[in-house]
Amino acid sequence: MKIKCPKCNDIAEMGDDFSFVKCSHCSLDMTYGEYVKYLTYKDARYSDVLGDYASTEGTTAGTLDDW
Ligand SMILES: [Zn+2]
Q1: What are the pLDDT digits (tens) for 13-35?
Q2: Are 10 and 26 in contact (CB under 8 A)?
Q3: CA–centroid distance, residue 63 to ligand 1 (Å)
Q4: 19 by DSSP, 3-state: which?
Q5: I want to staple 30 with a disulfide (CB 3.0 to 4.6 A). Which of 8, 34, 38, 39 is the partner?
Q6: Up-side HSE of residue 46: CA atoms within 13 Å toward CB?
Q7: How far apart are CA 7 and CA 39, in angstroms?
Q8: Residues within 5 Å of ion ligand 1 by Cβ?
Q9: How would you classify the pairing of strands 28-30 and 21-23?
Q10: What's the number of domains the chain is made of?
Q11: Residue 25 belongs to what domain range?
Q12: How far, in Å, are 9, 40, 50, 56, 60 from residue 23 at the CA level?
């Protein structure tokens, strides 16, 4: 079945028995387990970025309050 490639966001192919994920666009070739880990890792990093952004916003607001 076709899925979205986690690496290049193009169309990747997942085995019908969930045994592999392959993308011909960026040569992605991993097992489904690795694919899930990859997604989890990406999501975690994305959340971190959002968290950093939020805390930076908070710091900026605090600085403005001090003025
Ligand atoms: Zn790809």
Answers
A1: 999 999 999 999 999 999 999 99
A2: yes
A3: 43
A4: coil
A5: 34
A6: 7
A7: 9
A8: 5, 7-8, 10, 23, 25-26, 28
A9: antiparallel
A10: 1
A11: 2-66
A12: 10, 18, 28, 37, 42
